[in-house]
Design brief:
Layout (H helix, E strand, L loop, with lengths): L8 H15 L10 H15 L9 H27 L7 H12 L12 H7 L3 H4 L5 H11 L4 H7 L2
């Protein structure tokens, strides 16, 4: 199978918007399987894309989001590093610019951050804020997804 063409800025924007929307869907967002989640993204993306854009399969969309998430996570970490230095009088723009310079010190990102076009959408995405992946989060998800199960209520109190 040959590799598909690269994603345009508008394709990235659409994909990220769909990804965030489906991830944060309060009804099915956290209660769907991994496969259901990506099937929904694939269907939504291909239904909403411009007619001139090529069809993107689930694997292509997963790889693109993984690439974007990795870069956003790295830049977010660089921003936190700069903020922890407490630069006097630095604006948000100054901090982001310093973080981008710091990011370029990593070999993978020596050409810079390539996702400014989706940064504002992805930077506040809950997935990048939630560093604690402990037991409490699992219990909350289990209770939400299976609220009718008495067994789960017992698990919650353990």
């Amino acid at each position: 199978m040959s590799r598909s063409s690269g994603y345009s800025l508008n394709e990235d924007k659409l994909l990220c918007q769909i990804y965030v929307d489906i991830s944060q869907d309060p009804i099915t967002g956290i209660c769907q399987s991994y496969d259901q989640f990506w099937v929904r993204i694939e269907q939504s993306y291909n239904n909403l894309k411009e007619e001139s854009w090529i069809y993107r399969n689930k694997k292509s969309l997963q790889c693109r989001i993984a690439l974007i998430e990795k870069a956003v996570r790295k830049l977010s970490a660089c921003i936190r590093q700069i903020e922890n230095l407490h630069p006097s009088g630095a604006s948000d723009i100054d901090i982001i610019n310093q973080a981008k310079i710091l990011l370029m010190q990593e070999p993978t990102y020596k050409k810079g951050f390539k996702f400014d076009h989706v940064w504002n959408l992805m930077k506040d995405f809950e997935k990048f804020k939630d560093i604690d992946t402990g037991k409490k989060k699992f219990e909350d998800k289990a209770l939400l997804c299976n609220h009718r199960s008495p067994r789960l209520l017992v698990l919650h109190h353990l």
